[in-house]
Every structure is written in structure tokens, then in C-alpha cells.
Amino acid sequence: MPETSRRPIAIEGVLADYGRLIDTALDRYLPAEDAPPADVYRAMRYSVFAGGKRLRPILVIAGAEVAGAPSEAVLPAACAVELIHTYSLIHDDLPAMDNSALRRGRPACHVVFGDAMAVLAGDALHAYAFELMARNADVPPCTPARVLRAIHALTVGIGSGGMVGGQVLDLQAVRGVPGRKSAAGGSQGARDEDAVREIHRLKTGALIRASLRIGGVLGGAGEDDLAVLDRYGEHLGVAFQILDDLLDVVGESGKLGKGTGADAEQSKVTFPSVFGLERSRRLAADATHDAVRALTPLGPRGAHLEELAAYLLERDR
Amino acid sequence: MPETSRRPIAIEGVLADYGRLIDTALDRYLPAEDAPPADVYRAMRYSVFAGGKRLRPILVIAGAEVAGAPSEAVLPAACAVELIHTYSLIHDDLPAMDNSALRRGRPACHVVFGDAMAVLAGDALHAYAFELMARNADVPPCTPARVLRAIHALTVGIGSGGMVGGQVLDLQAVRGVPGRKSAAGGSQGARDEDAVREIHRLKTGALIRASLRIGGVLGGAGEDDLAVLDRYGEHLGVAFQILDDLLDVVGESGKLGKGTGADAEQSKVTFPSVFGLERSRRLAADATHDAVRALTPLGPRGAHLEELAAYLLERDR
Q1: Alpha carbon distances (Å) from A233 to A8, A75, A78, B131, B215
Q2: Is residue A4 classed exposed, middle or buried when 0-12, 13-18 and 19+ CB atoms within 10 A define those classes?
Q3: Which of A91, A105, A240, A248 is the most buried (most CB within 10 A)?
Q4: Is the model more confident about A261 or about B113?
Q5: Rounded to a whole number, what is the distance in Å from the CA of B134 to chain A's nearest CA?
Q6: Which residues pair with B106 in a beta bridge?
Q7: In this predicted complex, what is the ipTM?
């Protein structure tokens, strides 16, 4: 089947190139492990270089590409969103939160460095992300006004109306806020379906949308293109989260690097637990299709984003 | 003694006016408690409106005043530093960190809302602070370039080279990193003295310095004035921290709102524990004197900052 296999191979090379570019930049931007206070830098680097896929920084770069800007023009901001993502994982894994001992196949940050250092490493990454955002103003063709707009997009994506808000809803759902767990029957089921969509639209989707918008804004995209990126990001976020949930249920443990079934153990509200496996797969395919369709106005400028969406869907196969 | 009592009364009125201005702005900027996800907004507001003195936002306003800018011109940024300060207190009080059940005379955030919600409320305040910083660009006479410079100053002040770095050092000191606790004798004592200075220069001083610089930058201060603000902030930060440590030892419990002696209970590295009470008092007076002297180049434009330093010293009397 050479027809279907060609596309993933092409985008895989692009993703690998971007991944290396981002890893090199992260290594350059983050302070060395022996700089004082060394412990927190070790904890920060441990989690940043734990083998993430760099999806969010890749989306920043791809968003800038749509506006014709080179990846180098948004590299600080691309790294910034990865630091934000990493901080959120470190805090999420804390005993007070999801209490996950494993992350990406390795002991979680707090297991290695202690709970207090994990809180502080997350806080330091959070702050440092905004330092990198500000530093993006030094890279042409960026302007201070564009960077400020990108910073605003980031804060909206990660605050109480975005990523953190989604974690709050997730927490409430796990801890048995009325309307959860008894997923049987009509209106109760509908409420659960709405809940899982809303949790993930904020918890995962908001930073994915913000990443694309940050890239577009910094690259100088017009309002029409930004609207396209927003719509694409909305659907891609849904597809990504469903596929992530599915991998937790059916994937090999090594593939995601956390114990398979970890979500179920914690009574997490996931797409498979609410919609079932088959319907979740269909929803992921639909969302991918919607994401790709949203790109139509971009013409060939949307090629990488289209291939990326298709590639994520293939992960599940 | 009418001569000495007149000054504190004048600055007390100014501080009260600024405090009201800041409280009103914070109330306007923070989302309402019934907005979803309501729990996190309740936790955020609980800690923001727990009766803080608003010292840091007042320093932002005072920094802008030096450049001739009105307080309204820096109000979003002034509130932003208070949100940062609040987030740091919430995370500091967590069981995994200082494990403080009381803050400003009331149960700490995590005691009321749970550890997970306290982590998230801190994270949300952290992110929201940068949203407010970005929004300061909408207020004349600010420009995007000034706001970006102010954001950079904030990130440097609160990251691993500033506030969070100080918390890391503090944590290591409490948990018995070699060179602590046995404060007897020559070189060991000198190391302890250096350690307590460095911890507090970062943990408390960095945000105080950043607040003054943010106000100066946003207000349009020139490089000479910014250098004056930096020097003043350096000394004021030292004075403030010593006085805070002293109040913990000798103040009435109600005055600071945390249990008196809490630092000693946690084997915290404090100025009184390392330098003794009398020498700490002298160091605070010296630092206040140095702060005031640093203001000389400003002439009458430094009047409020001078009175503020003198007022903080009087707190201890």
C-alpha cells in the first residue's frame, strides 16, 4: 500500500527535523544543571528532556509557516509553550493532584526530586516560559506588539479559562461532583458527554489552540488565517485528546510511557469511559476530518498541518 | 515628639489611598466567584483578599511616580505583582513546602480548598498576572515595548534566578544542606550569614526590586532613574525581610497574622536566628538608611519612597 504509507513518512521527517530544532533550542535556553540553585535546574531539565513529542512547539512553528515565517522566527515562543506543557505535567503528577509516579516511562519529577522541588520546578518553568515569550521580540520579523498579542493568547490558553480551568473540572469530575460516574441512561449520559468534551477542550485543547495562534500571530498572519488556525486547533485538540485517551486504554504501556489503564484506575473522565471504544474512534476520525476541512482556505499553505492531523490519527492504528 | 510622628502619618494616608485603589482594581480584574470553574476563582479570591499590605503593587505605583506617571497608568501591572506574590504564598504554604496552616491570621488556601485546588489556584494566579501585564499596554502612556521590558523584569524577578530560586535555597537550608544549623564559630557563622542574605535577596528581594523597576519602566523612567530604583529596591528588600523576620520572633501573633515563632518551629534560616535580635535590628536600620541614601539623585521625586522606607522600619517599633 505505497499510496497510504507515503504521507506519514514525509511528515515524520518534517516532525523529526522540527523536534531536533526544538530540542537544541531548549537545551540552549535552559540554564545548565550546575548553575545555582542547581537542584531546580536539574528537576526542570529532567522533565523537559523526558522524551516528549514536542507537538505544541511544532504547532507554533506550523502556525508561523502558514504566514510564511521561518521556524527560527518563533523558536523562543515554541520552546515557551513546551515549558508550559512540561510545568503542567509536573504539577499534574503531584501526589496532591493525579498522584502519578510514572511519566513518559520514567519516574515522575516529584518521585525523583521530592514534592517541594517539583512544585518549584513547575513554577520556575512557568515563569521562564514568559521570559522566552518576551525574548521572541528580539527575533525578526517579530515586533513588541505581536509578542504582546501572543503572550495574551498564551495566558488565555493556560489560565483559569483554559488549561488550569480544565484541570479544575477534571479534578471535580474524578472526585465525584454530582452527575459523574453513573454513565448509564439518557440525560445522565448526555451530561457526561458534555462534561468530557468541556474538560478536554480546556485541559488539552486550549494550549493546542494557543500554540497555533501564537505561531500565526508572531509570524504575521492576517485575521482570516488566524481564524482558520483557531478552527483547525479546535478540532485537532479534540482528535488529539481522544487518541491519547484511546492509547491509554488499548496501547502498549511503552508506547505512551505511562501505565496503560492509568486513567481508569483513577476514575478519570475519558472519551472511552464515556463514549466507549468504537464511538471514540469514530469521534477522533470525525474531528481529524473536521480539522483538515478547516484548512481549505489556506490551500497549499495548509499542507503540513493537514499531514500532521492525519499522522496523529495514524498513531492509533 | 511631633517631629518624628508627622512623617508616618502622612505616608500612612498615601499608602491607604493606594491600597484602596489596588483593592478596587483587583476586584475588577479578577473573575467573579460564580464564574465557572467557580472553585478555583473562590480559592484565588480568598487568598488575594486575605488582607495583604499591597506593598509590592504600591512599589510599582511609586516607581512610576518617579517618572511622573499617574498610578492609573500602571494599575494592571501593580495588580499583576500582587497576584504573583499571592500565588507564591499559596504554594509556599502547601504541606509539601512550608506546611503552614495559617496565613495572615486565616486558614491557608490549601486548608480551606484542598491541596490540589491550592496548587491550581496558584498556577492560575501566576498565569493571570501575565495577562494583566500584557493588558497594561492598553493604558497610556504605555507602549508594547515598555510592557515587554516590564514583563522581562518580572520573569527575571520571579524565576529560578529570583523568587523561586530563593525558595529553593530556603528549602535546602531548612532540610539540612551541609553548612546549616550549627551557627557557632567563625567560618561556619560567616557562611550562614552569607546564606541568609542570599536566600532573602532572591526569595523576597527579587520581587521587590522587580516591582520598582516595572513601575519605572512602564512610567517611562530613564536609565539613571531605573538604576536608582534598583539600588533602592536592593536595600529596601533587605530591610523589609529583616523586619519581617523580627516581627515573627517578637511581634504579637495578630500583627503578622501567622503564629509568632513559626519560622523557628520550621528551623527556617532567618536574620534573627543567624545574626541575633540586636544585630538584626541594626542591620535593618542600616539597610533602611542605605535605601534612603540611594534616593538622593531623585531629589523631591523620591519623597514617597523615602517615607515608605522609614515607615516600614517603624513597623518594628
Answers
A1: 20, 19, 16, 21, 37
A2: exposed
A3: A91
A4: B113
A5: 6
A6: B103
A7: 0.92
Cβ <8 Å between A155 and B123: no
- Measured from the Cβ of residue A45, the count of other Cβ atoms closer than 10 Å reads 18
Percentage of chain B exceeding pLDDT 70: 87
Q: Can you read off the three cell numbers belonging to residue B286?
A: 542600616
In the block, cell 517541594 appears at: A116
C-alpha cell at B160: 529560578
DSSP B102: E
**pTM, rounded to two decimals:** 0.92
Residue of B116, B117, B155 lying closest to A127 (CB–CB) = B155
| Single-letter amino acid, residue A224 | D
- For residues A271-281, give the mean pLDDT: 92
CB spacing of B117 vs A171 below 8 angstroms: yes
Nine-digit cell string for B223: 536609565
Q: How far is CA A258 from the centre of its chain?
A: 16
C-alpha cell of A68?
510564511
The dihedral region occupied by A261, where left means phi > 0, alpha psi between -120 and 50, and beta the remainder, is left
Residue type, B127: A
Measured CA angle at A218 (ends A163, A227), to 5 deg: 65
Distance from CA of B155 to the nearest CA of A (A): 5
Q: Is B102 exposed, middle or buried (0-12, 13-18, 19+ CB in 10 A)?
A: middle
Buried b (16+ CB within 10 A) or exposed e, A72-98: ebbbbbbbbbbbbbbbbbbbbbbbbbb
DSSP at A259: -
pLDDT tens for B197-237 read 999 999 999 999 999 999 999 999 999 999 999 999 999 99
The candidate with the shortest Cα–Cα distance to A207, out of B127, B125, B156, B159, is B127
Distance (Å) of CA A54 to CA A16, A26, A27, A67, B202: 10, 11, 13, 21, 32
- Show the cell assigned to B150: 516590564
Among A126, A131, A169, whose Cβ lies nearest the Cβ of B126? A126
Using a CB-CB cut-off of 8 Å, the residues of chain A touching B91 are 119-120, 123
Number of cross-chain residue pairs from A and B with Cβ atoms under 8 Å apart = 154
At A312, list the grid cell.
496523529
B137–A148: do the CB atoms touch at under 8 Å?
yes
* A84: nearest Cα among B203, B254, B244, B123: B123
B127 closest CB neighbour out of A128, A145, A159: A159
